[in-house]
Amino acid sequence: xxxxxxxxxxxxxxxxxxxxxxxxxxxxxxxxxxxxxxxxxxxxxxxxxxxxxxxxxxxxxxxxxxxxxxxxxxxxxxxxxxxxxxxxxxxxxxxxxxxxxxxxxxxxxxxxxxxxxxxxxxxxxxxxxxxxxxxxxxxxxxxxxxxxxxxxxxxxxxxxxxx
Amino acid sequence: xxxxxxxxxxxxxxxxxxxxxxxxxxxxxxxxxxxxxxxxxxxxxxxxxxxxxxxxxxxxxxxxxxxxxxxxxxxxxxxxxxxxxxxxxxxxxxxxxxxxxxxxxxxxxxxxxxxxxxxxxxxxxxxx
Lengths: 163, 128
Description:
The complex is a heterodimer of chains A (163) and B (128).
Chain A lengths: L8 H4 L4 H22 L21 E5 L3 E7 L8 E6 L2 E8 L2 H5 L2 E4 L5 E8 L4 E11 L2 E8 L14
Antiparallel strand pairs in A: 1-2, 2-8, 3-4, 4-6, 7-8
Chain B lengths: L3 E3 L15 E2 L3 E5 L3 E7 L8 E6 L2 E6 L9 E5 L5 E8 L9 E5 L2 E7 L15
Parallel strand pairs in B: 2-8
Antiparallel strand pairs in B: 1-8, 3-4, 4-10, 5-6, 6-8, 9-10
């Protein structure tokens, strides 16, 4: 969702200065509102999204084809070994912990914008999936989970018989 | 006094094509005494598309993120795809020639060392 229709900087010929700064501000506002309206919050009904109050939750993308559901989650700085992915019925749960480097080094933050600590996000899936056919891989801080729809939920064409 | 301050994010026109949107990545700054770490979350960036540069006292980072490839129907989309860009003005206490950076697990870590003359050092007390 964008608040204002945008064009690329190249197409508008913006090159530095106040116009470019304004474009950055607009982009940030767009992203802020995208997150506000689309990401779960403490006010999101528990039946829709499950997570512990106060916990941060990673942003996700979810897409589906006729046979598969794909979920992409942004997990920067999180070792894949610290991520748990589980499936039950029509619900995918991604949980884990993002560890702060200051915990190991003992150094202090001068400025901190990232989220740290445990997280858990339960994502309702559009359809039931086969728990035996779930794969997850992580690349450059992005987790990709591929789920195969269970045969019972896979849509199929029903022939209409004529007498 | 050594300072790192955020600056307005705009440098010269990009030399190579970039996506329509640019975002400011979330950044942590950690002062370790001998060096300051700038830790930026830029998940999904192309490893060969990350630029860290220093010019006129300003440290800039730019990371390209390839377009998302999700087949099928998009049910939910919570994060946008676009390039990351952010800049910091460094104080005089830092040695720009020794700046290094590494990218791991979607996190860019920039090591900005202090000049040797201004690094905190422990003074040994000799017993008389």
